[in-house]
């Protein structure tokens, strides 16, 4: 399990965490007998009371000669008592609908909880004289950030540090998420930065779930909060080298980080100095420091363009330099090493060349020439796609993608190149990190210690539990420090006893055989003998190949008779998360097929994959998802009447559009904090994220964009009188990313327009206190997932049949 400290502008991205519905009375049920083929096939037990009916208030919106009727526009006013009453009615209906799954929910929850290790911890990571680590105490839901002095330190350093910290080697608790949650009922730590001298911890804290973060600075020498350090609306943080100057960004009323300020500590008064303000509402500002701590970078980014300013971290009040003027569609990111900036960019290689949104490449520039337009292109992104870079004292780390296979390699620094040199990657003698052959996810660790030749990552896949691996780039060896343990479970469907197997590594570039002994000793473990994980290529409507990852139990899968769950996202160029999740075992062991569709609009082997699924091309994402759905059925992985789908946030837009186009294809769907009312939302620039999202989904003020958005908008394309699948829609009342009214409006319109029998299987569950991220905590996450899985099993006919009949009043 990844922990937050030792692991950008906001997106409609994160998975919410919602609480379990409370119990209800089973006697309010009856079994429906209907001519609707969906309900007749599912024979669902439905509440005796009908679902809520939302009031209609005439309202229209006009654009480009079109007038759209929106009778549920009134829901935008979340302070309206009528809206609160309606949402509460929907919650009550959802509770009644799920009442016959209470036993199943408890069973699922206990299975998931039993798989969580009693103590989750990260291996200590050395940073200067300290060892930093995190752990979740037994019985707790949140981590504690800790440190202790490295016991290997000797001499005067040991004496000095002992004198200022007390007992040498004693564990210090720097930040306890559990204490904050107990005091406030909710905790979300955003940014968390230790000062270069290790004396202060600056962090941003949300205790409401509304993503309204406050800055706090803790003096680690005495454990006290620095007086008057409280600042509202803070997003990102960066320390200067003097450890008393802190840079931070604050957000505007639309939660857009737009201004950089600086605070200077060390006196009775805390002074805040303005550094930079971004006036363009389509750009967000982020503040960070280069890995060596020599420079602070002020990064002003839109979805597709960037502009960077650098500040000398040793003289933080001596002004800043702009690297390059922003150009539409051009992005660049900086790191520093020994007087050279290393730049990852997609900028045109020539001023005379028309930019076409090409792949990223690696360039360099001397610090004194940073404002020069002539960067030196040293590594072109031709055979591989550059995803990211990182720098340590002696090594450059490259995150690469080649034919949808992630790779990592290191190159010795400095790179000695003349002005005209351009290299191929193999010219620089890279060491490719050995990786598991079926790897899907690589997440870098914090790697705070610039002087350390060891690079830490978290590796994971659908069949490989999370493992923390250290790669020694000097010795070209690696060590698996820890791998997540998965406990066996016993449930009504039988016991689940898992046996690890040591798996092969992926030798991406035929590394020297001198590492074979190390690879053998440090082999990672996986569950491929128990669970099958396949990567298939699906041909979409226009001949483009879509990567589909398919996961199922070798023992429980029943071929074409099996139920299936397809997940997609397809937005912002983001990677679809396919890392290990032990909760999935509760579906896999019951015969479910889980599939992940890497549709256009998400992350791919190069930048064109994102562009081919956004703005005017957004419907490609939907068609890709439908092609993957058909593939699962046509190839015999899933029964034709038992396919379900799930989408989170912007992924809810994808799934919502897909079930509008092919409602007959899906048995059920899960839409979690979904972005469903895209046309109305993007027509209102006063809403958070709207202007920022023009580059992702298009600007409806432009006629061509408006027509494209309207053609797939889930809220605007619900069929009249048609049959729809069962749908669980989740929302959070205080969600600042996706308004709670989007889910409520969609459910209300679907109930009003579609088959009255089918719409009784559509439920809306709203968290009345949380925001986009829900409640938080590992146990709450288990409860939420158990609720979702129970809905899927009920609507797919997997509830215990005898138990269901008894609870419906048909005891046999």
Automatic annotation (TrEMBL):
Pfam families: Peptidase_S9, Peptidase_S9_N. One of its GO terms (biological process) is proteolysis. It is an enzyme of class 3 (hydrolase). Keywords: Hydrolase, Protease, Serine protease. Residues 52-483 form the Peptidase S9A N-terminal domain. Residues 583-797 form the Peptidase S9 prolyl oligopeptidase catalytic domain. Its EC number is 3.4.21.-. The keyword Protease applies. The keyword Lipoprotein does not apply. It comes from the Eukaryota. GO terms for cellular component: chloroplast. One of its GO terms (molecular function) is serine-type endopeptidase activity. Signal peptide: none annotated. Serine peptidase whose precise substrate specificity remains unclear. Does not cleave peptides after a arginine or lysine residue. Regulates trans-Golgi network morphology and sorting by regulating the membrane binding of the AP-1 complex. May play a role in the regulation of synaptic vesicle exocytosis. Belongs to the peptidase S9A family. This is Prolyl endopeptidase. It comes from Rhizophora mucronata.
């Amino acid at each position: 399990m990844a922990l937050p400290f030792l692991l950008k502008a906001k997106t409609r991205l994160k998975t919410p965490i919602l609480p379990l519905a409370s119990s209800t009375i089973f006697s309010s049920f009856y079994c429906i007998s209907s001519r609707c083929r969906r309900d007749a096939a599912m024979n669902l037990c439905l509440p005796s009371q009908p679902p809520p009916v939302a009031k209609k208030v005439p309202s229209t919106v006009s654009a480009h000669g079109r007038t759209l009727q929106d009778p549920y526009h009134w829901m935008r006013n979340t302070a309206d008592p009528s809206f609160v009453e309606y949402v509460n009615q929907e919650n009550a209906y959802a509770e009644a609908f799920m009442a016959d799954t209470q036993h199943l929910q408890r069973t699922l929850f206990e299975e998931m909880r039993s798989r969580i290790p009693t103590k989750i911890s990260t291996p200590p990571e050395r940073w200067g004289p300290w060892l930093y680590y995190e752990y979740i105490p037994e019985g707790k839901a949140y981590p504690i950030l800790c440190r202790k002095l490295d016991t290997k330190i000797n001499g005067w350093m040991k004496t000095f540090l002992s004198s200022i910290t007390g007992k040498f080697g004693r564990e210090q608790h720097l930040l306890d998420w559990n204490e904050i949650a107990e005091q406030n009922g909710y905790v979300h730590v955003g940014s968390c930065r230790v000062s270069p001298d290790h004396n202060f911890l600056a962090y941003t804290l949300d205790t409401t779930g509304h993503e309204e973060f406050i800055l706090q600075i803790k003096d680690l020498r005495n454990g006290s909060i620095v007086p008057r350090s409280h600042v509202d609306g803070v997003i990102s943080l960066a320390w200067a080298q003097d450890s008393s100057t802190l840079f931070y960004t604050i957000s505007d009323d639309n939660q857009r980080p737009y201004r950089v300020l600086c605070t200077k500590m060390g006196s009775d008064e805390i002074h805040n100095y303005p550094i930079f303000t971004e006036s363009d509402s389509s750009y967000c500002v982020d503040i960070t420091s280069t890995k060596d701590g020599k420079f602070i970078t002020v990064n002003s980014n839109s979805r597709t363009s960037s502009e960077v300013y650098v500040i000398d971290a040793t003289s933080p009040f001596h002004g800043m330099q702009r690297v390059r003027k922003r150009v539409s569609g051009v992005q660049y990111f900086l790191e520093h090493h020994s007087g050279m900036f290393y730049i990852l960019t997609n900028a045109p290689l020539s001023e005379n060349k028309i930019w076409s949104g090409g792949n990223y490449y690696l360039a360099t520039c001397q610090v004194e020439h940073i404002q020069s337009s002539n960067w030196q292109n040293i590594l072109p992104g031709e055979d591989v796609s550059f995803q990211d870079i990182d720098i340590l004292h002696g090594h450059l780390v490259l995150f690469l993608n080649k034919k949808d296979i992630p790779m990592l390699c290191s190159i010795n620094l400095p790179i000695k190149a003349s002005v005209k040199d351009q290299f191929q990657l193999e010219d620089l003698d890279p060491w490719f990190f050995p990786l598991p052959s079926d790897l899907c996810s690589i997440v870098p660790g914090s790697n705070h210690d610039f002087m350390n030749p060891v690079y830490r990552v978290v590796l994971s896949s659908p069949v490989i539990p999370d493992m923390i691996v250290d790669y020694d780039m000097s010795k070209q060896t690696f060590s698996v420090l820890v791998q997540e343990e998965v406990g066996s479970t016993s449930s009504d469907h039988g016991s689940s006893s898992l046996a690890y197997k040591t798996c092969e590594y992926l030798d991406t570039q035929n590394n020297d055989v001198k590492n074979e002994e190390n690879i053998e000793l440090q082999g990672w473990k996986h569950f491929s003998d128990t669970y099958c994980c396949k990567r298939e290529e699906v041909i979409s409507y226009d001949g483009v190949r879509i990567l589909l990852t398919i996961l199922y139990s070798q023992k429980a899968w029943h071929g074409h008779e099996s139920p299936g769950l397809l997940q997609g996202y397809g937005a912002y160029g983001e990677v679809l998360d396919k890392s290990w999740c032990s909760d999935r075992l509760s579906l896999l062991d019951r015969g479910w097929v889980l599939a992940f569709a890497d549709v256009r609009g998400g992350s791919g082997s190069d930048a064109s994959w994102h562009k081919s699924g956004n703005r005017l091309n957004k419907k490609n994402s939907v068609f890709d998802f439908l092609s993957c759905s058909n593939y699962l059925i046509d190839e015999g992985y899933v029964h034709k009447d038992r396919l379900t789908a799930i989408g989170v946030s912007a992924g809810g837009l994808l799934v919502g559009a897909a079930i509008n186009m092919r409602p007959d294809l899906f048995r059920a769907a899960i839409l979690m904090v979904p972005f469903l009312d895209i046309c109305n939302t993007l027509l209102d620039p006063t809403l958070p994220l709207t202007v920022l999202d023009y580059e992702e989904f298009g600007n409806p003020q432009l006629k061509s964009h408006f027509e494209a958005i309207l053609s797939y908008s889930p809220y605007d394309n619900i069929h009249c009188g048609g049959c729809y699948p069962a749908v669980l829609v989740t929302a959070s009342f205080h969600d600042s990313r996706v308004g709670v009214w989007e889910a409520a409006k969609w459910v209300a319109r679907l109930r009003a327009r579609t088959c009255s029998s089918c719409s009784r299987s559509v439920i809306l569950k709203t968290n009345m206190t949380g925001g986009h991220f829900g409640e938080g905590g590992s146990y709450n996450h288990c409860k939420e997932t158990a609720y979702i899985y129970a809905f899927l099993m009920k609507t797919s006919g997997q509830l215990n049949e005898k138990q269901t009949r008894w609870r419906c009043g048909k005891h046999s």
